[in-house]
Amino acid sequence: MAKMNMLQAVNSALISAMTKNEKVMVFGEDVGHFGGVFRATSNLQEKFGKNRCFNTPLTEQGIIGFANGLAAQGSVPVAEIQFADYIFPAFDQIVNETAKWRYRSGGQFSCGSLTIRTPYGGGIAGGLYHSQSPEAFFAHIPGMKVVIPRNPYQAKGLLLSAIQDDNPVLFMEPKRLYRASVGEVPEDDYIIPLGKAEVLKQGSDISLLAWGAQMEVLEKAAQMAEEQGISCEIIDLRSILPWDRDTVATSVQKTGRLLISHEAPLTGGFASEIAASIQEKCFLHLESPITRVCGLDTPYPLAHEKEYMPDHLKIFEAIKRCVHF
Amino acid sequence: MAKMNMLQAVNSALISAMTKNEKVMVFGEDVGHFGGVFRATSNLQEKFGKNRCFNTPLTEQGIIGFANGLAAQGSVPVAEIQFADYIFPAFDQIVNETAKWRYRSGGQFSCGSLTIRTPYGGGIAGGLYHSQSPEAFFAHIPGMKVVIPRNPYQAKGLLLSAIQDDNPVLFMEPKRLYRASVGEVPEDDYIIPLGKAEVLKQGSDISLLAWGAQMEVLEKAAQMAEEQGISCEIIDLRSILPWDRDTVATSVQKTGRLLISHEAPLTGGFASEIAASIQEKCFLHLESPITRVCGLDTPYPLAHEKEYMPDHLKIFEAIKRCVHF
Amino acid sequence: MKDRNHLSNIGLSHQVNVISNGLLDIPMLQLLQADGVPHAQATLPDMTQQKAEKILGTMQFIRILDERMVAAQRQGRISFYLACTGEEASTVGSAAALEPQDMIMSQYREQGALAYRGFTTEQFMDQMFSNEKEPNKGRQMPIHYGVKELNFMTISSPLGTQIPQASGYAYGQKMAGLDAVTICYFGEGAASEGDFHAGLNMAAVLKCPVIFLCRNNGYAISTPSEEQFAGDGIASRGIGYGVKTIRVDGNDVMAVYAATQKAREIALAEQCPVLIEAMTYRLAAHSTSDDPSGYRSKDEEERWRAKDPVQRFAAWMQSKGWFDEEQNKLFLEQSRQEVLSELKRVEKVPICKIDEIITDVYDVPPWHLKEQLAELKAHIAKYPDAYPKTSGRL
Amino acid sequence: MKDRNHLSNIGLSHQVNVISNGLLDIPMLQLLQADGVPHAQATLPDMTQQKAEKILGTMQFIRILDERMVAAQRQGRISFYLACTGEEASTVGSAAALEPQDMIMSQYREQGALAYRGFTTEQFMDQMFSNEKEPNKGRQMPIHYGVKELNFMTISSPLGTQIPQASGYAYGQKMAGLDAVTICYFGEGAASEGDFHAGLNMAAVLKCPVIFLCRNNGYAISTPSEEQFAGDGIASRGIGYGVKTIRVDGNDVMAVYAATQKAREIALAEQCPVLIEAMTYRLAAHSTSDDPSGYRSKDEEERWRAKDPVQRFAAWMQSKGWFDEEQNKLFLEQSRQEVLSELKRVEKVPICKIDEIITDVYDVPPWHLKEQLAELKAHIAKYPDAYPKTSGRL
Ligand SMILES: Cc1ncc(C[n+]2csc(CCOP(=O)(O)OP(=O)(O)O)c2C)c(N)n1
Ligand SMILES: Cc1ncc(C[n+]2csc(CCOP(=O)(O)OP(=O)(O)O)c2C)c(N)n1
Ligand SMILES: [Mg+2]
Ligand SMILES: [Mg+2]
Fold first, then answer.
1. pLDDT value of position D3
2. Does the ipTM surpass 0.85?
3. Which ligand lies nearest to the CA atom of residue C189 in the structure?
4. Could you tell me the residue range of the domain that residue A179 belongs to?
5. From the Swiss-Prot or TrEMBL record, what is one GO molecular function term (chains A, B) (predicted)?
6. What whole-number distance in Å separates Cα of residue D323 and Cα of residue D380?
7. Are A290 and A278 in contact (CB under 8 A)?
8. Which end of chain B has the smaller Cβ count within 10 Å, N or C?
């Protein structure tokens, strides 16, 4: 075990994966010699050579197009998109190509070996274009997997899973935690299964659900609620697609209440899918409406960032409203 | 009044708009001399000249990028994307540019005059790439409006509204109805307000909600249900973003039940947003879970198209399940 | 740390020089004249009689397939078709210069390359009818071929997407140390997509052994190339990317063969991309959904019909004594018969069982897809008549 | 129906010709030598003393602004900054050749053009502090300027997006019959985006009066241009699009001025695009988040520091007798003072009221945004200390 921050955990996972399998290749803008603008790919080029870790030209559609071809060929590409805000030029390659490759070819070919890493989320004074949380767009793409870790330990285990998994995975890294979140991480390999949520804390009055950087916020709010005698169950969804409906439903059947939080705008965010599914699955158990505490339906503002964010106070208030419905 | 099919109604709206305002320009792949692959822009180049109705090179990101600049300049672009399946290369220009232009500039500049027209939807033996219904992706983009007409009359009135509206509008045309749907359409100008749903039929047992080509299917299912004594209220949402929550909530408060149907895959589809909002708004009125009858969570298959589609039989069965919950 | 100087190869001028079109003047390689007689100055590539026969046979077969399938579509037997009439040489000539281990990533009008690889009439029909024997399981529209054994990547409709993919595929081949290249076909229309730019630039920078073959056939559906670009075709772009480039007469199968041979040689030896622009003409309608009389003249078509690539090559073979009129007639007749009889036979093959609706979305269907399938099967069982193609085999 | 022939301008060859790099040899326009002395063969553009002073003053002001802002960021007074040190000539020289009615669509390193247009120190500070006086309402990060009165389009971070937008903007200007062009700035890195391809090709085909000015400064963050493209810079791409192209020494403000004048003349007269590639070097770090010592040598930087565009132009002015050492010192000192005092003053200006969080998403806030705002305000009222920047002015 070693103390690592999330960047180190990601770097450690990449080193493991590249060491074990020489087909693993890491590329994207500035990921080569420089090690990426956040330094998640530090030293990889030195260790594994310029052919296996390299800079690409500045074209996200090209990066993913190239990665798709490389994956279909049988290599194991781990492509970086410098910020999740810049993944949209690659949206066509992801929606129409990555995700549909296996299906359209009857399983003859696939991009299953592809992993796309990208930092996402707010709280770093990044304004409109360095703060977005676009997971919901990708959760509406059959064929994709979407995974978001909440801390260094999770990051390494889930990333190693994603690289091994025979399906294309979008791996979104909460950049606010890159250096802020530090924890014990095994130096050896280990994997955390995709598609499984984790119940972090048992509780009886309400289930609180989130992912990524929002987990911290949830925990802080839960603490405030506990102080008022409200017992919270806390769940980290971890995989957004496919998502672990059973774990969530089991929890809600127990608590009778559900609150979901994400940074992305409310309308059409992934909380809507969870709420829609759970109200159906747990209809007779629900004691209050499923509540969403999310970003506003605006672009992500700089000056009003603090007000925009679904922080612990907003969640705390929502918990109370939910429990006292 | 004249009998028109939906293509003629769209064409008639474009002629009106171009006649009234010389700043209106229509462009896209093959829309010029040829009049578009579906002929929605027939005769526009002849009538208004090559400068106002023209072919573009084959680049969707270019078309929307160009349209954004043109809109910001003060012209009124009506850009066509040949199939909604091919809108994804333009996703970055739409998400990061079109939709955020006004906000990021504090209202100094905007793409408000832009309208994007595109045919969408299945049922034409189009397989993976001529069948998609991507409205949910766009419903998660603050700043966009998304509108879908169900028949020729609606198409003309809503399209004229969209062109006039000072916000960027994605206007999705159900191509299955292009020639199949025929109805009376005024030859003069008229507008149908954006953001307003329409209750097509009053009923007391269940509210049925859909949009575009799915309205027909809903009506057919409702008829079957009525024959079994189930009274259905039928609502056409028409505007997906912003959507008319009040009309839907009012209906559900009356009927106590809601079924939503769309062709797009279930997970993360726009029905999830509606279900999430309505379960919150109408919690104490709901007598059964809100039900979604949607496309499967797969790419759109050709050979199994019939099985894939949320047809009247599936909806009829779901209505019964809902009412007999 | 390496010292870099991005000006090192650039000279100075002291007057405002505007560089413009026409500077490059890229000629088009032509070996056989329209009548099949080689140009006096031309050196023909080595070609055995057997190879020549395979090339001609493939071009003729494809022409017949196109005719029959367009007719079948008119009769409502298939939903869609897309012919390559007039462009046979570009795809057959280039495929003939490749090795079987080379990957083909095509746009959609390259049935010639596929047939050259050995795709059978039956396989064509299976695809056209989206049946359960089709290796892609009938999920896409007709003409979206794909077959792993022949190293022919499954086609996808979105234009241009295969271009950066081909760069990536070729990079993978290089990393694996294979004696193989990738060929990537696309139209001059698709070359306007951003993916074209990304794909060529990445291939150049990352030194990928890929051949980009652009069929410049003058049209993208109704849009003539003069409304598609203002430069000198697609070849003139190669220079900008630092990609070696060859322009070739796409109706001269011999020239296409020679150019592609050369391109493959360079791509493999230098591990780098090569761009070929094949100048040709789409004699057919864009697809069975299209009617070109709305956007181009009969005269123009006639001018191109006179440049028929199949006749040109047949004439050359004749001059070599490799062409037997009678035997060829027989071959054509047999091919027609084969297409028709396979069509009839394959028409009856069922589509995949409904279970396949959820396979291949992921490697293994997750819970939500299993749930959706179970519901769907129960529903079909309840209304078997409404879903006749699958209800019989639940 | 018009008869078309897409082969009409193409000659024939009968040997396999591989066209490759180095064919074009595009020289770089330089008028002033590094020491400010004009090349003997150079014809300098007309330039009044007043204009020259404005150009020099703007370059010097921008250099000072950059220094102070980088320092302010280090002190934690602003969150982010991005300097253009070393590249002042490319943007100031080009802006000086334009008319005020021309639209500027920039990437982010073109504060020189903005200052030349008359953007004040106070306006710069307002933007840096995202305050309520900033016309963009403080919604974006520092350096994302935009001001309608100066025809300077609000900057957006996604790279390359402004390129096809500029084509569209210019098309609108043409349709409106304006005596105006659009200039579009971008880096050689951004030129790898698909939007570059789309924008240049569309401008060429649709004949848009737009000047594309690429600052080729050798780097895209850490990525050197040799890993960005393999061709001869960006200029060599112009030919492929049929776009008239000029390559210029980006550190020679006189050359940039002359080239842009010429480009504007062509764009207006011929209603067509022109591409300028300005060869320069980013002496600064990419931004305050970057440290270039990780990817390039000090020697390399020093070599470029010797080519300082500001000194070069000052030396030329001196040779004309247009430069007063003392007065210039005073100007520099005043500028420094002004930046510092404005910084201090503006630091205290509040951000927008919370109501502005939902305006400008649409022309008029729809129901859901009004609902969200009401909820938010109630929440802030409940926890005023947690939201100190807005709770005082609910
Ligand atoms: C991304 C995308 N946009 C639009 C289309 C619709 N479309 C299909 S073929 C075609 C024209 C292609 O022309 P070209 O690339 O020249 O190939 P050709 O048909 O001439 O062989 C168009 C616009 C598409 N399939 N994909
Ligand atoms: C679409 C997109 N991808 C990535 C980035 C992150 N990014 C910001 S600046 C930059 C480098 C740009 O280099 P260049 O265009 O050469 O301009 P320069 O900084 O040299 O002026 C990158 C990769 C971005 N802003 N937008
Ligand atoms: Mg073509
Ligand atoms: Mg640069």
1. 83
2. yes
3. 1
4. 2-185
5. branched-chain 2-oxo acid dehydrogenase activity
6. 57
7. yes
8. N
